[in-house]
């Protein structure tokens, strides 16, 4: 059985390991009220992580969110954990009265794309651009 709950400070080491495995980044110790962090557990072991980053569009006056750093530990992939995490996030979004979710995903993450589409996300034609204003060893410009 999968349990999903809010991230706690003592989850740091397990989440950092998952993020390094999935995205080759280390987790910072930052806190931000607009970033809601969650972990997925299987048999009391942290096996997944994601962030709901809430935002407000001042043009349309709609609250929405980005789903970020959605990842499952490699040895626990293909067990429905990511789908369960996505369903949980969607339910949280409804409870927060969000208008919609957005997410970006590297084109190489085909299995992740399958999960996103399976839970109802639609692929839209877009390009993602990035301009780094300072060097950050934890973030890739690719």
Describe this structure in a few short sentences.
The protein has a single domain, classed as Gcn5-related N-acetyltransferase (GNAT) (Aminopeptidase, 3-Layer(aba) Sandwich).
Q: What distance lies between the first and last C-alpha atoms, to the nearest angstrom? A: 36 Å
Low-confidence stretches: none
Helix content: 25-40%
> What is the strand content?
25-35%
Q: How many domain modules? A: 1
The overall pLDDT, averaged over residues, is: 92
| CATH level-four homologous superfamily name | Gcn5-related N-acetyltransferase (GNAT)
Judged by helices, strands and strand pairing, the structural class is alpha+beta
Number of helices: 3
Rg, rounded, reads 15 Å
CATH class: Alpha Beta
Task: Give the strand order, joined by hyphens, for the main sheet.
Answer: 1-2-3-4-5
Tell me the overall shape.
globular
The overall strand count is: 5
SSE series: EHEEEHEH
């Amino acid at each position: 059985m999968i349990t999903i709950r809010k991230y706690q400070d003592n989850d740091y080491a397990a989440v950092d390991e998952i993020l390094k495995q999935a995205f080759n980044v280390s987790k910072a110790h930052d806190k931000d009220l607009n970033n809601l962090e969650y972990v997925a557990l299987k048999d009391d072991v942290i096996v997944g992580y994601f962030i709901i980053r809430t935002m407000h569009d001042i043009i349309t006056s709609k609250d929405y969110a980005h789903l970020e750093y959605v990842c499952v530990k490699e040895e626990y992939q293909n067990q429905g954990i990511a789908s369960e995490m996505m369903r949980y996030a969607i339910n949280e979004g409804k409870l927060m009265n969000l208008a919609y979710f957005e997410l970006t995903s590297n084109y190489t993450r085909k299995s992740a794309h399958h999960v996103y589409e399976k839970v109802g996300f639609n692929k839209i034609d877009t390009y993602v651009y990035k301009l780094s204003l300072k060097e950050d060893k934890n973030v890739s410009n690719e």
